[in-house]
Design goal:
This protein is mainly beta. The chain contains no helices and eleven strands.
Length: about 120
């Protein structure tokens, strides 16, 4: 069974940086699409950033220029580097990994809290 293990959340002051990690476990086949979502209290879950198997990246307008996403194919992990954090970035961040071709999967991580103090 494919599982995602997230790490790297925490408390940081505005202007600081954090790096989130999402490690895919239990799969011998690489995810073709990995994304980070976030959900702040009282708000809907939103897409923050994504990366495809050919390393095409997309970012929400609110994080462009501040967040970066990259993958380590040896560890089968994806990282979200978050710089110049703002209070508005406070949320629970979730990793989602998908693979459309067999063996397919669509898996979510447990979520990691990111809190930015103003």
């Amino acid at each position: 069974q494919v599982q995602l293990v997230e790490s790297g959340g925490g408390l940081v002051q505005a202007g600081g940086s954090l790096r989130l990690a999402c490690e895919v476990q239990g799969s011998h086949s690489r995810a073709t699409f990995v994304a980070w979502y976030r959900q702040a209290p009282g708000k809907q879950r939103e897409l923050v950033a994504s990366i495809t198997v050919d390393n095409t990246r997309n970012f929400a307008d609110s994080v462009k220029g501040r967040f970066a996403m990259f993958r380590d194919n040896i560890k089968d992990a994806v990282y979200l580097q978050m710089n110049a954090l703002q209070f508005e970035d406070t949320a629970v961040y979730y990793c989602n990994a998908k693979r459309e071709i067999q063996p397919s999967f669509d898996t979510w991580g447990q979520g990691t809290q990111v809190t930015v103090s103003s």
